[in-house]
Amino acid sequence: MNDLFSNFPTADVSALPTPVVRLSNLGHDRLFMKCDNLSGETYGGNKIRKLDFLLGQALAEERRSVITYGAAGSNHALATAVCCRQRGLKAISILAPQETNGHVRKNLLMQQAVGAELILCPGFSDFPETTRQAVERCKQTDGLEPYIIPAGGTNATGALGFVNAALEMAGQIQPDVIYIPMGTGGTHAGLLVGLKLAGLNTRVEAVRVVEPEFRDRTHIQQLCDELCAKLEKGLQDQCGLLETEERKGREADEFPLLRELCDLGVEKNPRIEDSNIIIRDAFFGEGYGMSTPEAEEAVRLFKEQENVYLETTYTGKATAALLHDLRTGALDGQTVLYWNTLNSRDFSDEVAPIDFHTLPPDFHSYFSGEIV
Ligand SMILES: *Cc1c(COP(=O)(O)O)cnc(C)c1O
């Protein structure tokens, strides 16, 4: 990982850098994909980069348990459980009801396989009370408070993972534009700040997949501001160190990127302007988790033309916007990067031996009846 991050502990749960590959069958010469589907050994997707920093902090604070949140089939809750197992932390997932399907079932079974404690709440409004009870239990068993990770792993600590991701990408490709889904916004905010630090003018087209009441541009702006403040503080400490090293006679070029970032970050405070925040609303459809015909078409095309597996909650909507813009000619002559945020690691073998009856009874109804 980049020197920029030596001030922020990481749990080293990711498999980085992720590759960049060319997508040559969708009718655009310079279309590429950043394969964050492979970001972890057991489980990939965009949450792993955030968990590197979140669990790094949890371990630095010597926490033993981690609480996080999501809907029943949450990718984030599963990613957290998988990474916690890797680092010997106990994962507690506080979940809200969601209509069941094959994906939800498989994610729940995998959480069980990696030893997470699963709690189903009647609704999101029950999260605070359920959290209070879980924190009390952790204090009894661990002798200290658990580390609490917000939904989607999104706060300034988690978003550091995507600052690092932008710097990683800058060494591989320098696109004119990046397409991502926008859920809790950690991916979006982290990339914006990281691209600025990398000195790139790359535009980020963040395609809305959650309701505007849940996340909008003011949230992204606030997250970018928090992230910049955090990085600036970390950089100031490190640039102080760098000066000390230089006084001791070590060459600045032993730390080329840090030198550059000290100049950039400290002297040109990397604030993100409102005009840099692009949120595409037109591909959202009726609501979070609700498919659209455009998303379905995009999923089908990526499968048929590129053998890339996507879904309709996040990645199908992002690629629907991308395909739309390719067709209108808006991207002619541009280098385009689709950032694949969806896990593609196959964990069928780990879930195969798990009997759903071993999950808490509240979850059993998720496994009855036929599903599509
Ligand atoms: C969580 C998730 C996202 C959204 O990322 P945010 O940082 O929350 O905006 C996108 N794609 C997939 C597949 C996800 O699981």
From TrEMBL:
Cofactor entry: pyridoxal 5'-phosphate
Gene3D superfamilies: 3.40.50.1100
Location of the active site: S74 (nucleophile)
InterPro entries: ACCD_DCysDesulf (IPR027278), TrpB-like_PALP (IPR001926), TrpB-like_PALP_sf (IPR036052)
Pfam family for this entry, one: PALP
GO molecular function: D-cysteine desulfhydrase activity
UniProt keyword Zinc, yes or no: no
Chain positions found as N6-(pyridoxal phosphate)lysine: K47
Family: Belongs to the ACC deaminase/D-cysteine desulfhydrase family.
Identification of the protein by name: D-cysteine desulfhydrase
